[in-house]
Amino acid sequence: MTTMNIFKKLTALITSRQLVLVAIVALVSVVSFARDNQRKTITPNPAFAGDVIAEWNQEAIRIVLAIPVPNQHTRVMAIVQVSVHDAVNGITGEFETYLPRVPAPAGASPHAAAIAASHHALRNLFPTQAASLDTLLMNSLAANGIPMSDPGIGYGINAATRILNARANDGAAQAQYDYAAPGAGLPGVWVPLTALPAILPGWGNMTPWVLRSGSQFRPEAPPALNSERYARDYNEIKEIGAINSPTRTAEQTQIATFWLGSAVVIWNQPLAQLNATSGFNLSQRARLFALVYLASVDSGIACWDAKYFYNYWRPQPAIQRGIEDGNDFTAPVAGWTPLHPTPRHPEYPSGHTTISTAMASMLQMAYGDNPGVPITSTITGITRQWGTFSQGLDEVIDARVYSGIHFRNSDVVGSRLGGQVAQFVLTHALRPCRGSGARCS
Description:
The protein contains 15 helices and 2 strands. The two termini are about 35 Å apart. It is mainly α. A two-stranded antiparallel sheet has the order 1-2.
């Protein structure tokens, strides 16, 4: 049977339809997460050979690596992992589904549903990857002893189809357009440094997944150009973030380079590592992966809302034009250049610290700040290791300063924003099923 015929057959099976969290809040969240994950624990079925959640998560990460814009990584991963969550928990009933639950057919395997949901979501998002995805599908089903007749396959396809349809008109396709900030050219106002367009000026207008709006946690305005805080951040980055900085150490340079990687790729590694040793059952793992990526995608939307609302200038033009800012403590440097190229979007707040903190905070709430094992991640041959999630988040804040692309206050504010989004997602999405409801019964 050809892979196309296999896909048609499967389609026919579709059914009818930290730093930022105060200690007490973090502690309550950890206890709550642990309590939720103790409910209705299911003994793993020895007939299943591997962790299908992790297997297909790694395939999704492999594919998103080819996407050049990190914001889009968060959306793809949310679609995949929420599809898996709804496929699994629609059958097991342990946690609320994201969309109203569709009753599962008798005998539907949640493992089959997870595999089929992953495959269907990825195949629709990346049709050019169809052949390799179809091969992985057949191998995954076979390795887990799942027959083609398992009704969980159709249920998983349906779950993914519903998520794809729900996000089809979310505004992501309209987020890239020509943009010029109001007042561009004035001191403090962002302007592009090249002829290339601004990156996704409409991303902050995209429909959030859990947040009520992209502006729900919009932070206060960035520091005034004549303020003491602005001068402090200006002079710090002018020295340590310059391409030829005499004070930046070799390790700080390495840290800056490491954190050029996508937050999704960096934090998915601890997610996968901790998942492998957590003892969580299938429903719990599907939920955690989905929560991490719901937090990541909504934090990106919230950050981009603020970026293009405030349109704050980047350190590179700020330092070159320091004479114009009205601050007696910010001496300009003609031709000042950062260690790494200035990104093509407004500076405030930091996108990386926002999304990193959202993802790490969700892991922090699941495993505690110190999970008891080293937290490691490797990007382009550089490996970083932290004892706690807080240490990793402190590092990304420093890294964006070392790179010369973000003022420290923007990193700190971004991190706070990411933590707020993660907390909101945890308390408003995919909650334990403690009774009847549209998403549980």
